[in-house]
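Deviation from plan, reported transparently: NAP complex.
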Amino acid sequence: MLREMTLSFIGSGNMAEAMIRGLTGRQLIPPHNIVAAGPRRIRGRELEQRYHVRWTQENQEAAKQADILVLSVKPQVLPQVLVGIKPVLKSDVLVISIVAGVRISTLVSGTGTEQVVRAMPNTPGQVGKGMTVWTATKSVPPARHTQANAVLGALGEEIFVDGEEYLDMATALSGTGPAYVFLFIEAMIDAGVHMGFSRHIAERLVLQTIDGSVAVAREAKRHPAELRNQVTSPGGTAAEALYQLEKGGLRTIVSRAIWAAYQKSKLLGDLGEKESQEQGYS
Ligand SMILES: NC(=O)c1ccc[n+]([C@@H]2O[C@H](COP(=O)([O-])OP(=O)(O)OC[C@H]3O[C@@H](n4cnc5c(N)ncnc54)[C@H](OP(=O)(O)O)[C@@H]3O)[C@@H](O)[C@H]2O)c1
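Because the crystal trials were delayed, the predicted structure below was used instead.
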C-alpha cells in the first residue's frame, strides 16, 4: 500500500533512520520513493549509501513531493520547520508526527492539513523492537490508517488509540519506559558486581534473565503475580528478596514515577500549545 507513495522525512536523525531501515528492510516501499531532509550533507550521504534513499538539504524539496510526510525533528525546531514547509504541501498529504509533546491542533494549523497522525514511539524502535502508540484526526480515512500503520510498524509494534489523551499516558508508560527498565538493569548489574561477579558476567546474567522473563510473560499469558509465585518457594531466596523490595516501596515508587511522568507530559503539552498560539501558528 506504500509502493506508489512518496514518503518524506523532515529530520533525518535516529528515529527517521530506524523507520527507513524497517521500511526498506521489509521492502514495504522502494528506496527511491523515500526522500529524507536534514541540514547536514554528511548525514545525507550516510543515508543514501546505507539505504539508497534520496536525500536533500531543503525541507521544502522533500515536503512538496510527499504523499506521506513524517515529521521527525526535535520539538524545538518544529515551529521553524512548519513555517517553511506549509506553503508547499500537497492538499491531500498525510502528516505523521513523532515529535514528542506536540499536539494535533498545533500540527493541523502548522501544516494546514487535516489528515494528521500523532505518534509516540520509543527508543527500542531503533532496533525494530519499539512500541509506538498513535492516534489520528477524524479526517484520516481507513486507507490512510493502513498506510500509517505500515510506516509506524517499521519501528516494531504499534497500537492505535482513539483519543489524543492516551498519548500523554503512552509517553509516561512506553515512551519513557525504557529509562525505567535501563535503571532496573543497571541496579541489578551493580548488585551482581557488589556480590563479586565481573561486570561483564553480571551484564550477561541480567540481560538474559530479563529477556527470558519477558518471553515467559508473553507466552504464558498469565498474571505476572502467578509467574512470580512460581519462583517464590516458602522461606526461600525469592521470598526474602521480594519482602525487601516491597518493604522499600517498589510498587508505590514505580506508580508514583509513572504518574509524575504523565503529569509532566501533560504540562509540557500545555506549554507547547500555549507557545505555538503565542507564535501564531496554532
Ligand atoms: N528517540 C526516541 O526514542 C523518541 C521517542 C519518542 C519520540 N521521539 C521524537 O522523535 C523526534 C526525533 O527524535 P530523534 O531521536 O530521531 O532525534 P535526532 O536523532 O536528533 O533527529 C533529529 C534530526 O533533525 C535534524 N534537524 C535539525 N534541525 C532541522 C531542520 N531545521 N530541518 C530538518 N531537520 C533538522 C537533525 O539534524 P542534525 O543532526 O544535523 O542536527 C537530526 O538529524 C523528536 O521530536 C523526539 O521527540 C523520539
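The beta strands are 7-10, 34-37, 54-56, 68-71, 94-97, 116-120, 130-136, 156-160. We consider this an acceptable substitute for the interim report.
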